[in-house]
Amino acid sequence: MSDTAFVVIVSPRQEAAPGVDAQRLPELGFWDTPAVHGWLQAFDAEEADGGSALVRVVPAADEGVIPADAQRLQVPVTGAESELIAQVAATPAAAQVQAELLAFRRVLAERPAMLERARAAGLSPARIDQLAGAPLTAQLDGA
Predict the structure, then answer these.
(1) Long-range Cβ pairs for the range 131-137 (8 Å, 24+)
(2) pLDDT in tens, 51-61
(3) Which of 141, 133, 136 is nearest to 114 (CA)?
(4) What are the sequence ranges of the domains in the chain?
(5) Which top-level group of life is the source organism from (predicted)?
């Protein structure tokens, strides 16, 4: 666990609740921890007006949008969980771009192996650069 997120409890009267409704992310590992169970139970015990509070999950990067009067608990999440929270919290357009960027990151990570396969297949560095549309082999030679 290297990332964090926030479990936030806001009033149902809050105009714009931050993050994602907790019910949209039931598979996150932190829900099963005693700390989160205890924290949520303590808040329920404090609910005196019988109103239904909103439990939300907020990505760590969006901490600034959490209302000052909201109850919050910082929780550890895996990198994959952090990405899932960010994608679910994003608008559809932003979620699409995030998915494209993640795919692009995977392609970039595979670039050195692709260049080695091209060289092993007998392609010249000039031909590899021509097909890639960028001077990729110079980067590999300089590394």
Answers:
(1) 136/111
(2) 456 889 999 98
(3) 136
(4) 3-89, 94-142
(5) Bacteria
